[in-house]
Amino acid sequence: MGAGRVLALLAVAAIFGVVIAWPLTRLAIEALGSGTAPFIAALGPEGVDAIRNSLLVALTVTALAVTGGFALALLTEHARVPSRSFLLAGILLPLLVPDFVSALGWTRAFGPAGLIDRLTGVELPGLYGPVGIVLVLASGAVPLAYLLIVAGMRTRAEPDLERAARMSGADGAMALRTVTLPLLWPVIAAAGGLIFATTMNTFGTPAVLGRPAGFATMTTRIYSDLAFSSTDAAFERVLGLALLLVAVVVLVVVLTDRLGPRRTERGSIAGPRGATRPAGRLPIALTWTFIVLTVVVPLLALVLTALTRAVGLPPLPENLTFANFGRAIDSRTMPALVNSLLLAGGTALACVALGAAVAIAPGQRWRRRGSGIVSLGFAVPGSVLAIGVLLAFGRSLRDSLLIILIAYVAKLWALAARPIAAALDRLSASAVHAARIHGADGPTALRTVTVPLISPTLIAAGLLVFVFALHEVTISILLYGPSSATLAVAILNVQQLGDPTVTTALSVLLTLLVMLCAIPLFVLRRWWSASLTA
Fold it and tell me: CB atoms < 10 A from the CB of 1, how many?
């Protein structure tokens, strides 16, 4: 191993210890050093309610999202779908909308005096509370489940077995039950585990829809105890809930990983290009209805509210204005926007550099180990990671952008490390060998050959981290100070003050920023796919 690689790996190990290992160790020391008090406090009435609510929401969202994602995957992969590109865009659009922005959109669409209430006189009962939280989170998780299950269909499905079952007299339902589901069960379990862990960690939607109804989850209870209480009992409950949240998430991830696919089984599933059976009208109609109700209507209501002169006025042309966007970007929110851009940019640069440092380890085995180790930060719930960072660095860095940056890097490092490592695994060694034969040393070959070849992946990894950091709220809400609020935090704070027009204007701006960053990601993905098949 060259001296450069040794230094890079030592630097990676040191940074991992500082931003991930030490905060989690500090949290464990603080909690375990208090004996049983944190767990007793966490299992008190308020803690038990939060634990029960979180588990109930996560289980329900997982069941709904996996079912919906599987149904959509069957529709798009097993049949010819008219206007397939538009349908896929509608299915995947929620991935570009922050969850708390979706929750705000639902309140403006289906809540009291919302768009649907104005048009039809009907509002969605129970929107503020567990029903609304489940609906918003499930509709946002369906595209994630869809992507994972489609990927499983394209690698694990065996169309010959399905055809044999149909030729032997099995109808579609029996072939699905006896052939397709058993083959895809590991993928479905993995998707369910990921969605469960993500839902347990979510903060924005429970904050928007749960807190007004007095419905607390583990993340909102942790935030309330840290932000609005200074008693020892409240802090002990924070520590206990944080450790319990880690335990539940890790347990689910480990179980689903054991159930997950152990090897890749490539098939040639009758996907969209090979499908000959046209999709039925009813499934297509139901899919478009789902997209309109869960994506189009909330976003439309959000935009109309942001453009309306005042709350209560109908969204008619004479009542529309762009002035709310000018009011939204003021002395309170402009610094938050700048902070978000600085944090997102700094996190992207740091994670790409660290991800590349992990990826230069010799051999696929070491690269995978390195990627797996840094994935610990992504697996740990953001609220727990924020508490650990606060305990580790709060005395010297409290209320600064740097403490938020440390937590962002710890959380999002894996998003850059994994695709970079995968790109190096696919890279042919012949070009590097040719450069070395012609006299280039290791650093020169890296700079002139390897980096140019994987540059699309480096850019895509940076953009992916940038997008996630731009709308991150769970970590930010726990670590921000008077001068370090992010745009996501500012939106929630303005929403708490009860100004719907400014809140929705800020939400629209944040969503547009995320979508603008996603366009280069899509272009790079198409370019990279074309280069691989060329």
Answer: 13
Closest CA relative to residue 204, chosen from 476, 467, 390, 404: 476
Asked if residue 356 and residue 328 are part of one domain, the reply reads yes
Range of the domain at 21: 1-33+322-534
Number of domains in the chain: 2
Q: Which residues, including other chains, have CB under 8 Å from residue 339's CB and lie 6 or more apart?
A: 401, 484, 485, 486, 487
> Looking at residue 107, what is its pLDDT?
93
Q: Hey, what are 112's tokens?
A: 């009291």
One domain, residues 29 and 54: no
| 100-144 residue pLDDT tens | 999 999 999 999 888 898 888 888 888 999 999 999 999 999 999
Choosing from 318, 344, 371, the residue where a domain stops is: 318
3-state secondary structure 160-196: HHHHHHHHCCCCHHHHHHHHHHHHHHHHHHHHHHHHH
Q: What is the pLDDT of residues 222-276, one digit of tens each?
A: 999 888 877 888 888 999 999 899 888 888 877 776 665 554 444 444 444 445 5
Are 377 and 496 in contact, with CB atoms under 8 Å apart? no
Distances (CA, A) of 399 to 293, 402, 421: 40, 9, 34
pLDDT digits (tens, 9 = 90+) for 475-491: 999 999 989 999 999 99
Q: Are 492 and 477 in contact (CB under 8 A)?
A: yes
Pairwise CA distance, residues 444 & 356, whole Å: 16
Shared-domain flag, residues 286 and 338: no
